[in-house]
Amino acid sequence: MELTLSNHCLLLPSSLSSRHSGSRNPYRSLSFRFDSGNGLGGSTALVVHRRSSAVVVARAGSSHCEPSSSSSSSSSSSSGSLNTPLEPRSAAGKFLSGVFQNQKQLFHLAVADELKLLAGERDDAAARLLRSSGSDEAVLHRRIAGLKEQECQVAVEDVMYMMVLYRFSEIRVPLVPKLSKCVYNGRLEIWPAKDWELESIHSFDVLEMIKEHVSTVIGLRSDSSVTDTWATTEIQQVHLGQMYAASILYGYFLKSASLRHHLDRSLDVHQNDHLHLAQSSGRLYSERSNHGPSSNLIFGHGSSKRDSKSRQSLRSYVMGFDAESLQRCARLKSKEALNLIQKYSCALFMDEKTGLVASDETVVTSYSSLRRLVLEAAAFGTFLWDTEEYVNSVFKLKEIDNN
User: Fold this and answer.
1) Is 390 domain-assigned?
2) Cβ atoms within 10 A of the Cβ of 326, count?
3) Distance from C-alpha of 95 to C-alpha of 117, rounded to nearest angstrom
4) Are residues 92 and 156 in the same domain?
5) Where is the composition biased (Low complexity) (predicted)?
6) Domain-ending residue, one of 175, 191, 212
């Protein structure tokens, strides 16, 4: 049975969902559609000064379930493979893969150059199409521009993937390899856990909501004992895939919501400073005009409300969202981000023997392994939000039509 990864839902805590839905359903579902399809590449160029199409044969690690060594990968560097579920297939992606493995200190410069190059190539094709309007070559240039658009989109998705991978390497967390390599006799085990590293990227407020999400989706309390953590449970592989994709979206949502929360709090503090200044001025004036009590009451009341709002937690802030605000924070902004989530999820859960993305077969796994997957997915979504923002500032991404 093939999983096409469609209609995944973002699961929010019941206290958030019931406020908007008016029902007793414990979760509020925010649906995102993933188009079917996947594509895995394999070669890597190992030069930094220009892109190359040299083909290097990928080789798996010494262990079937050996995670990709994002921070120091001597074995993968020698073979040219990232040893991750998804390998770049564009020239830009393969080039950045080589830089990532061999000249990491130049990675950010290489990313900036590649994005500018891709933007220039796309703009040049569009300009030629515009100049050929009304001529006999218009059809040809329209076709060329369309192909260049598709080529650049695939390339920029690879660039975004490499940027996300780089962020994982900064916290020394290897991505989980293809899960088909980690299942032995129907049992899935992922090690090392890397819980601390994956949690370290989040602020306190975000981490609290991440922990609640983990407890919700795997059914284990965050304060459970070590014995409970290593207890086993059964789960269908198709549900495992849905859980991972939903957790990516949740990490993306929390990044968006937390930044909006921080901005609102900053504005409140700024306005509150003005109120305190006005309060001081009003007190000085009232003392001189003998009308102090009423002025102080007015200014003091406004200041108290502002102080209360500026101390509001992220959880309380999100609970105050209406349906439109909730969707705005949770919605993916670009088609490239959507495609990357879909391709990576497919690559992670694809069975290399059968070629199927996932199945309804049941595997036995520990709660520790489930938590590792969910925390990684949430971090992936967080890094993807940052990546999307940066890339869009250089290479204009395609907006998702939600109509």
Assistant:
1) no
2) 22
3) 13
4) yes
5) 63-81
6) 175
Reported as a pLDDT band with limits 50, 70 and 90, residue 95 is very high
Q: What is the pLDDT of residue 226?
A: 82
Residues 6+ apart with CB under 8 A from 149: 122, 125
Per-residue pLDDT tens digits for 276-298: 555 555 555 555 555 544 444 33
Instruction: State the pTM of this model.
Output: 0.76
Q: Is the link from the previous residue into 85 a cis peptide, with omega within 30 of 0?
A: no
CA atoms of 63 and 61, how far apart (whole Å): 5
Whether 398 contacts 260, CB under 8 Å: no
Query: Residue 333 above 60 pLDDT?
Result: yes
Same domain, residue pair 54 and 1 = no
What average pLDDT does the chain have? 77
Angle between helices 237-289 and 292-310 (to 10 degrees): 170
Same domain? 73 vs 30: no
Q: How far apart are CA 316 and CA 195, in angstroms?
A: 26
What residue numbers bound the domain in which 118 lies?
A: 37-175
Residues 161 and 57 placed together within one structural domain of the fold: yes
In a domain, 398, yes or no: no
In what helix (H) or strand (E) does residue 148 lie, and over which residues does it extend? helix 138-170
pLDDT at 240: 93
- The answer to whether position 161 is within a domain reads yes
Same structural domain for residues 11 and 27? Answer: yes
Q: Which contacts (CB < 8 Å, 24+ apart) does range 1-4 have?
A: 1/238, 1/356, 1/358, 1/359, 1/360, 2/356, 2/357, 2/358, 2/359, 3/238, 3/241, 3/349, 3/356, 3/357, 3/358, 3/359, 4/34, 4/36, 4/357
